[in-house]
Design the sequence.
């Protein structure tokens, strides 16, 4: 059974990954501040305080130089800073949580359920 490893007010690095339409993978690491804990759902309520790291890989897993990063999608990643979300306790283990691209583009409201 999943369990929380952080308390309200503490922070941890949360890593997210998206597969872009061209096959590249975008990985972003945020500092996540725990705002609440929903034990019944095994989730944290967190605010994404800062984008602290990121990289983009091609479909073969090769790291791309920053001048080849997708400016369009990285701009969307930057807009996630400050957002409040719920995320499973397992997200605190340092591994990437893989999301559908629609969560990044806003077609799915995952990152926009809570008002600013």
Sequence:
């Amino acid at each position: 059974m999943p369990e929380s490893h952080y308390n309200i007010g503490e922070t941890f690095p949360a890593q997210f990954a998206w597969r872009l339409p061209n096959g590249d993978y975008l990985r972003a690491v945020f500092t996540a501040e725990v705002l609440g804990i929903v034990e019944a759902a095994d989730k944290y309520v967190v605010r994404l305080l800062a984008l602290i790291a990121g990289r983009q890989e091609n479909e073969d897993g090769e790291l791309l130089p920053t001048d080849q990063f997708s400016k369009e999608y990285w701009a969307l990643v930057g807009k996630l800073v400050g957002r409040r979300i719920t995320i499973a306790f397992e997200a605190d283990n340092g591994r990437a949580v893989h999301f559908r691209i629609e969560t990044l583009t806003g077609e799915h409201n995952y990152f926009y359920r809570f008002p600013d």
Q: What stands out?
A: The first helix runs from residue 71 to 78.
